[in-house]
What we know:
Layout: H1 9-13, E1 27-32, H2 37-52, E2 56-61, E3 76-79, H3 94-123, E4 126-133, H4 139-145, E5 150-154, H5 158-172, H6 206-222, E6 225-228, H7 232-245, E7 249-252, H8 256-259, H9 273-279, E8 286-290, H10 299-312, E9 316-319, H11 330-333, H12 338-342, E10 346-349, H13 354-359, E11 363-368, H14 372-381, E12 385-387, H15 393-404, E13 408-410, H16 417-428, H17 431-453, H18 455-469
Parallel strand pairs: 1-2, 1-4, 2-3, 4-5, 5-6, 6-7, 8-9, 8-11, 9-10, 11-12, 12-13
The protein binds uridine-5'-diphosphate.
Uridine-5'-diphosphate binds at residues 37-38, 41, 266, 290, 292-295, 319, 351-352, 354-355, 371-374, 377.
InterPro entries: UDP_glucos_trans
Family: Belongs to the UDP-glycosyltransferase family.
Protein name: UDP-glucose iridoid glucosyltransferase-like
Amino acid sequence: MLARFPETEEQLTYMAPGKEEQLRSPCRLVLIPLPFQGHISPMLQLGSILHSKGFAVTVLHTTFNPPISSDYPEFRFVSAPDNLSDQVVPTDNLLFFISHINVKCRVPFQECLAKMVEQGREEKEEIACVIYDECMHFSVAVAEHVKLPSIVLRTTSASTYISRNAIVRLKAEGVLTSQGSTSQELVPGLYPLRFKDLPVSKIGTPEIFLQFITDINKTRTSSSAVIWNTNDVLELPSLQEIQKQNRVRIFPIGPLHRIAPTSSSSLIKEDRSCITWLDKQIQNSVVYISLGSLASIDKKELAEVAWGLANSNQPFLWVIRPGSVDDLEWNKLLTEGFTEAIGENGCIVKWAPQKEVLAHDAVGGFWTHCGWNSTLESISEGVPMICKPCFGDQRVNARYVSRVWKTGIHLENIYDRGQVEKTIKRLMVDEEGKEMRQRAKYLRERVELSVRDGSSYNSLNELIELIRSF
Ligand code: UDP
């Protein structure tokens, strides 16, 4: 398949001046995403952006949790025979699973890539490089084997990266135990993070966590560049610190979803009926609640959130993803008086078109687990947040939302419906919430500017020049 060239004026405005001619020669990129929703989306968004600049794109993916190829007819999709398809995601031990993926994928991915290189030679179409998710770190060796340069895509915040490295240091100094810490004290040099915000993992053993950090750090020296789904407006100090530590160049070009031509990358079918429900609601009145694709809550938490919402009298749209409550009978838990109490005031779906929901006029607040994509999507729409992180990087993001950008409330204990109700009112009704909304709108403008004509825009053009130079 030949590369498509920018067709609209808008696509052309993102091109570096004078680059149009260079884009005439077809050049293919191979993308290797980690097979989880929060990682597949930014990788496909990056693919769309680079495709709109004239690159042809092949997505080399696992048989487990494959991307929906029909959403991207302009890409080639190649599934590597990795024997992973029957796996169930062990959400309590994700890091072990990621390390398992890295072991299982290396040989089949190498074989597939070698075939692609061969095919490229026959079709007179060169592969410029491999772009891989930081968690698919086996990709470096696979790319080296076929003599291709590689670029890492980091899908977390830059501050998460810095704090992960701090964990290694603090553990070596004996300041932090393997279990992490519940201390409210600030971590020296990591303002505004407290020890309890460090992304010490409850999703793997301490040994696996340290190995994970070592593995993803190795890629900063063995690859040609690092792409970040963040930008200077949000994280300049962390990005500067990272560039100091890295020999290779970093390219903060996010938020990717704001640049990518719109296309869904949902692995779960979106229930669009919630948009019709939102259309009937008053501007800024709805609380949107979602915990992303992996986090879960127990039935006690579910009940407290449900009744806190009902008692707040605020309309709400709640995503309860299958598997996100540890009790399969969760809907029975919500029937005892709850349905009557909320009436038309609430809408519950299994999966929503989140970006569209956040962009809807009726949505005035986002109760989020603070996955990095959700955080960026909320910031990009100027929606203030109630942050209820569950694990890992979500705690770092929640702290940045509440303390650095000041566009949300960090909810640290929700086993109490009274507190849930109060927090919702603080965000949706009180003066404090109005101020957060104003700051959120201002932050949105600045982020949008960086994408249209600022630091992200410039970084993207520099990245394209680098890829062209390979
Ligand atoms: N998402 C969605 N519909 C939903 C819930 C989530 O489309 O009902 C998307 C959301 O827009 C985001 C992704 O799923 O892009 C979740 O990624 P995030 O990094 O926020 O969290 P993770 O799932 O990795 O924990």
